[in-house]
Specification:
The chain has twelve helices and 20 strands. By secondary structure, it is an alpha/beta fold. Helix 4 packs across helix 5 and helix 4 runs parallel beside helix 6. Bound molecules: guanosine-5'-diphosphate, 6-O-phosphoryl inosine monophosphate and magnesium ion.
Length: 430
């Protein structure tokens, strides 16, 4: 068997959590492979909304093993809170949650460093979620980090203190006052580590590869989105991990030959939270309408999300670097009231040159999108099959497929699990 990968193709918050929960019954294992508590994945069913940050979105389904892979950076304090919140739903993750012993730990000082670096950047700040993601990955690459598997070792405290003291030196260099908060944060950190001792912290790469050998099905759940990828995103306004499909290999210990389908999730329009370039961003009534109807506020930080039209060159780029095999279009219902729906098919630079490629200097130079106007369907969509969708919605889907040469096999029409319309896998000839 192979690992299917589900990931976001835009700047995050495409609706990955909803779809992982929707698809989970078809899988035996759901595994997060990168990111950390910067993610906020929303699931909605039975009238209840759940937001998961580090726990994989298969957790509410029965008989599924949920894996937090080695590529994830893990905040024990946030994880404890998330785990405790599951109790009221009679879910006991001690049984079906597996944490990689190689997952890097986010220390309290990592989050403080995040804040110090952002403050020092002033108006050019990234707009980080301030969860300590960047500094933790920095320490991982610098070979300084502490991992989940270390918490049982006798000298953990000593190693912790050594790294914390290095962080303190950096914080002092940045003139960042941590004295009021650190002691309390450290207490919570060690309390959470104690709590996590009861969980399965293990070699999840063996778990996953053995499962594949036994014919079990694995779904890898991406966090963030391709345009936030550390290598291919709108650098430096990105996150600190490889959010792309290849990240599932390194973040879980799965060989490239064992990757199967790549499901690319995108909104029927576009959003971004935090700073950075966004060529199709809207500042007019249309943008405000999208934000309002789509309830576009960050699931982790509550910050308003910037909104704009669908950006096809960016989407095509994301499909290319991920090898997307199927597209899933989310939040089509948010456009129900629009008479006209645009999408960008190219960019024009300041010299008047047009391109359909993602420009290297998108964070520096201004690129104007070239738009195509589409007739909106201007009605509520209740149908549960593609064939019954209003013609204008069918046309919109067909035009996006035509641009990308990849089939859209799922359309989401609301936040609830049930508001999801799927069709059989189809191929599109290019
Ligand atoms: P993720 O990070 O990719 O999992 O996405 P988020 O959970 O951060 O943001 C997606 C938001 O849109 C959540 O509030 C979802 O409940 C909501 N959502 C998901 N799919 C749909 C949809 O088809 N229509 C509407 N209106 N909302 C949706
Ligand atoms: P999910 O998984 C949307 C953004 C932040 C910021 C940049 C860097 O819910 O789609 P970081 O905290 O990683 O240093 O922030 O990335 N960002 C996200 N935006 N959805 C996310 O996750 C995000 N995770 C990080 O807003 O611009
Ligand atoms: Mg989110």
């Amino acid at each position: 068997m192979k690992v299917d990968v589900l990931l976001g193709l835009q700047w995050g918050d495409e609706g990955k959590g909803k779809i992982v929960d929707f698809l989970a019954p078809h899988y035996d294992i759901v595994a997060r492979f990168q990111g950390g508590p910067n993610a906020g994945h929303t699931l909605e069913f039975d009238g209840i909304k759940h937001v998961l940050h580090q726990i994989p979105s298969g957790i509410f389904r029965e008989n599924i093993q949920n894996v937090i892979g080695n590529g994830v950076v893990l905040d024990p304090v946030i994880l404890k809170k998330e785990l405790e919140a599951l109790k009221q739903f009679n879910i006991d993750p001690r049984k079906n949650l597996f944490i990689s012993e190689k997952a890097q730990l986010i220390l309290p000082t990592h989050a403080l460093l995040d804040a110090a670096y952002e403050k020092a950047k002033g108006s050019s700040k990234i707009g980080s979620t301030l969860k300590g993601i960047g500094p933790t990955y920095q320490d991982k690459i610098a070979r300084l980090g502490l991992r989940a598997g270390d918490i049982k070792s006798a000298d953990f405290k000593k190693k912790y203190e050594a790294l914390r003291d290095q962080h303190k030196t950096i914080l002092e260099f940045y003139d960042f006052d941590y004295s009021d908060v650190l002691a309390e944060k450290e207490n919570l950190f060690f309390e959470a580590l104690e709590y996590l001792q009861a969980f399965k912290i293990t070699s999840t790469e063996y778990l996953i590869n053995q499962a594949l050998n036994e014919g079990k099905r694995v779904l890898a759940e991406g966090a963030q989105g391709s345009l936030l990828d550390i290598d291919f995103g709108s650098y430096p306004f990105v996150t600190s991990s490889n959010t792309m499909a290849a990240g599932a290999c390194t973040g879980l210990g799965v060989a490239p030959k064992n990757i199967g389908e790549v499901f690319g999730v995108f909104k029927a329009y576009c959003t971004r939270v935090g700073s950075g370039p966004f060529p199709t961003e809207l500042f007019d009534e249309d943008g405000k309408q999208m934000a309002k109807i789509g309830n576009e506020f960050g699931a982790t930080t509550g910050r308003p999300r910037r909104c704009g039209w669908l950006d096809l060159p960016a989407l095509q780029y994301a499909c290319m670097i991920n090898g997307v095999t199927q597209l899933y279009m989310m939040k089509a219902d948010v456009l129900n009231s629009f008479e006209t729906i645009k999408f960008a098919t190219a960019y024009q630079d300041e010299a008047g040159q047009q391109t359909t490629q993602m420009p290297y200097d998108v964070a520096i130079q201004k690129y104007d999108p070239i738009y195509v106007e589409n007739k909106g369907w201007a009605q509520e969509v209740k149908s549960d099959s593609f064939e019954q969708f209003p013609q204008a919605l069918q046309n919109y889907i067909a035009k996006v497929e035509e641009y990308l040469h990849i089939p859209i096999n799922l359309v989401s029409l609301g936040p609830d699990r049930t508001q999801t319309v799927r069709r059989e896998s189809r191929q599109i000839s290019s």
